[in-house]
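Subject: design request, 228 residues
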């Protein structure tokens, strides 16, 4: 993650007729149509009982991640959480599946593929494996291959409820509020945007980062990293 939100906060609430495509129906559509969530089943938590790894945790710095001389980032902890669920690791950014792109600033190759992203999450969770995903919580760009990505979290479960299908996640950016918030799977859930099944969002006002006195309006899933 490229730092705490200290400027524009991503809040797609004042969009017009094409709000489901962020007023850009040419570049922000999935050519295959809305993503299919029919294969979502009940997977409670593939990391249940595993050691919690939170952002900048002094306790787990050297025990969990060896990155000598560098500041630990959310992506490092998300990778560690995936590794805790299996002997697999998230693929590099070049093999990601983009769920959302900022076309105005995107320089690296990017192509929306919501269905592959959704299918990747579902298939991994069914096999008991966590999934690293990128999210956008502020409008400011980043140095990631997908410029819209400025944080990473870990998908650990899925299911369906009154509000439809969801993917629950761990958020390791909880160094003030702690584990209770970062692992609250009843609140930490991505759901399909009601205006477009291609966008997976968490916008219930209970974001883990909000509990650290930050002010994002939404987590929007930007990319999915397949495991290998």
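Subject: RE: design request

Done. Sequence follows.
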């Amino acid at each position: 993650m490229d730092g705490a939100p200290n400027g524009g906060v991503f809040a797609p609430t004042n969009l017009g007729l094409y709000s489901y495509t962020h007023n850009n129906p040419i570049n922000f559509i999935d050519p295959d149509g809305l993503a299919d969530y029919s294969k979502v089943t009940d997977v409670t938590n593939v990391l249940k009982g595993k050691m919690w790894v939170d952002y900048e945790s002094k306790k787990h710095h050297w025990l969990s991640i060896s990155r000598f001389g560098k500041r630990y980032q959310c992506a490092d902890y998300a990778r560690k959480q995936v590794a805790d669920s299996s002997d697999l690791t998230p693929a590099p950014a070049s093999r990601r599946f983009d769920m959302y792109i900022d076309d105005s600033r995107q320089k690296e190759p990017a192509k929306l593929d919501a269905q592959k992203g959704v299918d990747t999450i579902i298939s991994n969770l069914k096999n008991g494996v966590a999934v690293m995903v990128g999210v956008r919580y502020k409008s400011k760009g980043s140095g990631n291959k997908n410029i819209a990505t400025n944080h990473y979290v870990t998908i650990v479960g899925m299911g369906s409820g009154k509000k439809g299908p969801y993917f629950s996640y761990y958020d390791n950016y909880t160094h003030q509020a702690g584990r209770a918030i970062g692992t609250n799977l009843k609140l930490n859930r991505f759901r399909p945007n009601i205006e477009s099944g291609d966008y997976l969002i968490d916008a219930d006002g209970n974001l883990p980062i909000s509990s650290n006195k930050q002010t994002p309006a939404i987590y929007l899933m930007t990319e999915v990293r397949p495991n290998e």
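The chain has one domain: 19-225.
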